[in-house]
Design a protein that fits this description.
Elements lengths: L2 H16 L3 H8 L3 H8 L7 H11 L14
């Protein structure tokens, strides 16, 4: 799994855990919904600035976006 896919998987997981729609997260993070959608599909790379915004809204440590899933 490459880093974009890993980031996308974790972004979706964190967003769902907070019960937010893409529209809600995009608005709160100050990005467009289409950009957020592309991040969640693994099509775009996220800048550190965007990772910081998303982490703040999702109340997550920025490192959570690159955590590999547990295999247990």
């Amino acid at each position: 799994m490459d880093l974009r896919e890993l980031f996308a998987t974790n972004l979706r997981r964190l967003r769902h855990a907070k019960g937010l729609s893409q529209d809600e997260l995009a608005y709160d993070a100050g990005v467009s919904r289409s950009y957020l959608s592309q991040l969640e599909k693994g099509k775009y790379y996220a800048s550190l600035k965007i990772i910081g915004r998303l982490a703040e809204v999702l109340e997550a440590d920025p490192g959570e976006f690159l955590k590999r899933p547990d295999r247990g």
